[in-house]
Amino acid sequence: xxFVPPLLRPAFAxxxxxxxxxxxxxxxxxxxxxxxxxxxxxxxxxxxFARGDGKTDDSEALQQALLDHPNGNRIIYLPNGTYxxxxxxxxxxxxxxxxxxxxxxxxxxxxxxxxxxxxxxSPGFGQTGRGHPMLWMGGDPASRTRNAVRNLSLHTGVGxxxxxxxxxxxxxxxxxxxxxxxxxxxxxxxxxxxxxxxESIGPCLIKNVRVEGFDxxxxxxxxxxxxxxxxxxxxxxxxxGIRNSGQTLNIRDLRSTNAVPAIQNNDPSxxxxxxxxxxxxxxxxxxxxxxxxxxxxxxxxxTTPGHTNAIESRVEATRNVSGPDIAEFLSHERMALFPxxxxxxxxPIEETPDVPWDPLDKWAGPQQHGGVPGDxxxxxASIQQAIDSGATTVYLPNGVWRVNSPIEIxxxxxxxxxCEARIINxxxxxxxxxxxxxxxxxxxxxxxxEIEAGEGPLVEQASTRRLVxxxxxxxRALLSGRGSLFLEDVSSTGEWVINGQQVWARQWNxxxxxxxxxxxxxxLWVLGLKTEKTGTAITTHTKxxxxxxGALCVASGGFKDAPLFMxxxxxxxxxxxxxxxxxxxxxxxxxxxxxxxxxxxxxxxxAAETGLPxxxxxxxxxxxxxxxxxxxxxxxKPRRRTDESPVSKRP
Length: 651
Description:
By secondary structure, the protein is mostly beta strands. It folds into three domains: 31-238, Pectate Lyase C-like, CATH 2.160.20; 334-350 and 485-651, no CATH class; 360-468 and 478-483, no CATH class. The strands form five sheets. It has a 15-stranded mixed sheet that branches. Strands 26, 27, 28, 30, 32, 34, 36, 38, 40, 42, 44, 47 and 48 form a 13-stranded mixed sheet that branches. The longest helix is centred in the N-terminal third of the chain and has 11 residues, at 11-21.
């Protein structure tokens, strides 16, 4: 366990302003609308006729809209209004475990304007009630892909003390974005975001979410999957802001204002990566720590105003860190194989760029140029014509679109939105569906698309523009240009290769045997990675730089002859946890090569021989430091195998 003395970094000035303004500063302009032919289900229209007037019980209308579209990649859309409900809204079923409670998106017109409110004193939500969530997104097993809640608010009403906000369930790709969840009054509400009601929640992305009240703002449990948070606000909780009992949680920009601990990481298998957090204490009857930790904790750029104690870590022996400002804290000893800096790389972080949500007269779709979803015809030409029409947003209505020829994203287009559509890469083979070339907008966003399983890449980044891929399932990108890439809530079964570009990723899920990410000479920053099966998760070579802030690596599949992470004449800092439920973990956790010296951090029979902490049958890396520079120090312990003979030139 190591603690770096407090340091208030210049970035904190920006962070404190962020804490004052917050993501809500841009909510006034939010107005999410879709064309009438986009395949979006408007709950105020036939056959549902929800009123949204704040007086009528809309439970039946909203629930029926959900039930009528199981496993359909459908957007269930709520125009601005207040929709009263008196029962939990449940995601729809299906004919079997693999098709039920999945591919359903509840979408509001705006975060402040579209409100679902629990009717006061609703049966089943009182003091003697069992407790129910307002929204239940599904249960086990882990096949609930593409579920999401977006751009709306939830309110538990009055007299509903056993109510919770959202019982979250999304796997591989999905989550909760731009949502406010509120419980008013002392003793009202159990959990804002419930990530503990089932074992296999995640991986998913929770972004731009505010939770007000409840006993717990976020409750998480089980070590099966992971969840990534960015821009999370927790205010006025009764027991804790976040209580984690085993999950892997990757968090950036947490702002907690509470008279209770902001974080309780209370299980030895719990893993929390926390960066750029402001944890403000409110007056309380007795002193309390901002963070109480019994598991794995990496914390960086943390400020805890008002707390008498910033971190109380109860790993092996209790260790208190007073704060209020923490540059970097590790609950366990860092790992290294060569002389390296004793801290993480702290690469510059860029926010994911956005483009304005265009008015509908700036939208164009392939159906306006002869394209028909689901007819098995080639839609390439109709999509290209929509792009070349002068529109700034091109949309693919819900359904299946077949692409046999590459499509260029050029001209005025700045957003390609799928309306949760699917694309079949019909005759392209290894060629991409889209090719981004230079155009009018400095940013291009591709979002809410699924590629049919086993198909080729979604896009080639061949431009100098910044490309965002967001909320896309089973996709990968080819990087041939110099433009940077931003990934948010992306899942893939293919290998990604970075060729000198800059990449920022939030919640990245890759499940495949073999190499998953290769960074050759680029800069890669990741908040929340989840991998499965055999093969190296990240290879960094040719002077590349990689910073991994939070990963869950599931060691499934057969024999693992490759290391989990590989560094060769490059720089990397890694925060990750491995799980091996099948009893077959990686034997080599990190292999690092500098010049002709080859060293490995290996699993051996005795943890004392390596100092490598155990985590759910695998290894825990609170920090592996593989980057040199002024101030580098020797490895903490001689836990290496050394081969001084020449090594292969291949990475």
